[in-house]
Amino acid sequence: MPKRKYKIAVIQLNLNDVAENNLKKCISWVKDAANKGAEVILLPELYSSHYFCQSEDVDNFALAEPLYSTSFIAFSALAKELGVVIIVPFFEKRMAGIYHNSAYIIDTDGTEAGLYRKMHIPDDPHFYEKFYFTPGDLGFQAIETKKGKIGTLICWDQWYPEAARITALKGAEVLFYPTAIGWHPKEKEQYGENQYGAWMNVMKGHAVANGVFVAAANRIGLEKYIEGTEGIQFWGASFIAGPQGEILAQASHDQEEILIAEVDLDLQENVRQNWPFFRDRRIDAFGDITKRAID
User: Fold this and answer.
1) Which superkingdom heads the taxonomic lineage of this protein's source (predicted)?
2) What are all long-range contacts of 29-33, with beta carbons under 8 Å and residues at least 24 apart?
3) What span, in angstroms and rounded, lies between the C-alpha atoms of 4 and 41?
4) How far apart, in whole angstroms, are the C-alpha atoms of residue 240 and residue 175?
């Protein structure tokens, strides 16, 4: 029988380093999380490098890796060694000219439980992801692992209730969001609090609307590598929320941390019985949601 309770972990890190060093760092932190009792462990978006999407530069494609190469080999062995599930977000080279912002879901025996490719791709100042990433083509998924049935979405996917809804309807107990989001330093004083608040509130809303646990792993630190720019100050504040939007664990804005919380499926079922949002959905009236605009 599936476990009714299991522990999940979010790892918040500064990843402004080369791939080899970031890999060693993440392996160390995953081991630490497992030693603290975590059974499903989430790393931040694009774990292996600095956030290179601050510019449009073809040289950055060299940071990508083919499927089942460096990241998969390392974390597959680690997952099997520790007996944990690891969500590994990475820059995927599918073929020359086609790249994805992806995540492996690696099961406790080291096998691939699933692969997710980021569906929503942003294009904002210093978040020029459309230059690098082809939109995902694997859809929204709830993935069976030996610890639980989980869904992985990535960063910009955070803002879309449709993505959370479909993933939850497919049976995901937890929505995991590997993330790389921060402030433009010039904007932080004026807009920073509202930007961060909106980010957190929309995901708490997904937890409430779908009766699921939500876990978001962000990076920290100022990443300033382009001459003449102020870079991006990643705001951290990773968190885990329960199915009523309650905060179970919250990280700081500027420290490397591990957050651990318990997923309680009996609690989830109780919340859904008392707030039966799935029961009362008017699916007969939602046809217009597939339109770009209702003119």
Assistant:
1) Bacteria
2) 29/256, 29/258, 30/75, 30/78, 30/82, 30/84, 30/86, 31/78, 31/82, 32/258, 33/9, 33/84, 33/258, 33/260
3) 18
4) 10
273-to-51, 142, 207, 209 alpha-carbon distances in Å: 42, 21, 15, 13
> Which distant-in-sequence residues (6+ apart) come within 8 Å of 63 by Cβ?
19, 48, 49, 52, 91
Catalytic residue check, 155: yes
Q: Return the structure tokens found at 237.
A: 């504040």
Q: How far apart are CA 155 and CA 176, in angstroms?
A: 10
**Residue 191: which residues within 8 A CB-CB, separation 6 or more?**
183
Q: Are 279 and 271 in contact (CB under 8 A)?
A: no
Q: Which whole number is the average pLDDT over 210-234?
A: 96
Active site (annotated) includes residue 118: yes
Catalytic residue among 26, 53, 129, 155: 155
Catalytic residue, chosen from 39, 53, 92, 118, is 118
245-286 residue pLDDT tens: 999 999 999 999 999 999 999 999 999 999 999 999 999 999
Domain 3-288 annotated CATH 3.30.1330.130 = no
The SS3 assignment for 117 reads strand
Q: Which pLDDT does position 3 carry in this prediction?
A: 74
What does DSSP say about strands 174-178 and 213-217: parallel, antiparallel, or unpaired? parallel
Among 7, 26, 45, 53, the active-site one is 45
- What are the residues whose beta carbons fall under 8 Å from the beta carbon of 275, sequence distance 6 or more? 208, 211, 244
